[in-house]
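Predicting holo structure, NDP bound.
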Amino acid sequence: MEKHVAKYVEEFMDRIRTKNPGEKEFHQAVQEVVESLAPYIVENPALMKMKVLERIAEPERVIIFRVPWLNDKGELEINRGYRIQMNSAIGPYKGGLRFHPSVNLSILKFLAFEQVFKNSLTTLPMGGGKGGSDFNPKGKSDNEVMKFCQSFMTELSKHIGADTDVPAGDIGVGGREIGFLYGQYKRLRNEFTGTLTGKGIEWGGSPMRPEATGYGTCYFAQEMLATRGESFQGKTVAVSGSGNVAQYAVRKATALGGKVVTLSDSNGYIYDPKGIDADKLEYVLELKNIFRGRIREYAEKYPEAQYFEGQRPWSVKCDIALPCATQNEISGEEARMLVDNGCICVAEGANMPSTPEAIEVFQKSRILYAPGKAANAGGVATSGLEMCQNSMRLLWSPEEVDNKLHGIMKNIHAACCKYGTEPDGYINYVKGANIAGFIKVANAMLAQGIV
Ligand code: NDP
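Done. Tokens:
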């Protein structure tokens, strides 16, 4: 990195750390973006003068609120709710809600910041936002989840709307939670609009929304592999997580000819050398989405599989890795293991699952590596398609939505190649995604003046 570029990055990050003390995930996400954008920005006086990236890194609005609710024993519980309205330069704020005990301001600000670039990459008119709560749905009854969602929405409803801010699901927020949240929103506002996405198909949802993030990640990986004359056919695939993104990544990777051999949750991972076929995946969907069980039970049901308590799946030999659980779930050491074991492609279904050290290993080894903001953008893209159908009062067919999703993922891949191809031909997807995502937002902000 040239000296004046390095100085820009250093000063930028100093300001970020001073203004946002202790927010390590947010610092990590900003650092990655600033490093790849700095050479472009310092050459552009308008971007420098108008402090465009500085403004993008400062949320337009942060809402923090109390969420009181009564559990099944009649006791009072108090959680904290958040909504980060990060950037509305190209459309209403859009991004998921996460319910997980680890949720804090730093995690939601990193997710909201990433969302700005991701949403821009989809080519759809959506700004960036994120929200959630430190509420833990695990072990709670449906009634408790409903009570919490209703209390959470009672406050959140004051700040969102179909043309203002459109939340969706994320970790801990699936179809059940979106149903309770939407029911309460509708009751409070007395309107049926597309203010949440991920809705059920009978009440304003889009076909393929549950599948979209996992399928989109595989479509993206397919494009990456094609740049080297490769495909999923005959490849061994390691997937982490066993929630929404992981489930549909397994389905699409298998349909494209891959053999998926791992799944995980926060307690451990399973390794099934015979592969997780369609029947086994049906079992996982039931186990996770209906019985809300643990992935350990997979190995009890299928004796050919082994369960590894307290471990992550990255020591397993694979050709393709699809991390689909959470942030910072691949360390530098685990990345080294993946590469040493012959992995040629890593496409992130989760947001920021690779640590900076892991990214360095992937890029130095010159393997195919795509960050979540590009590879998992199919989820929010299909949410954008849900908003579009809601506005038109129409329902498209699954094929129509899937074709649009596939087209969007191909376009995102092409944009990454355009802005990320290095002189030696290596495609730096991090750089490509950051620059491509930034340009549209930056132009909009320049046009809209100092706001
Ligand atoms: P789910 O809640 O459906 O599933 C999350 C999975 O990850 C579960 O298996 C969960 O295990 C595991 N997990 C969560 N936290 C941890 C942790 N700290 N350590 C290890 N495992 C963990 O969420 P999604 O599948 O929707 O989301 C997964 C990832 O994909 C997230 O990074 C999310 O931000 C990202 N994403 C999701 C999109 C979507 O459309 N849903 C869109 C784009 C990105 P356990 O059950 O034990 O908690």
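The pocket of NDP is lined by residues 169-172, 174, 213, 241-246, 265-267, 324-326, 349-351, 376, 379 (CB under 6 Å).
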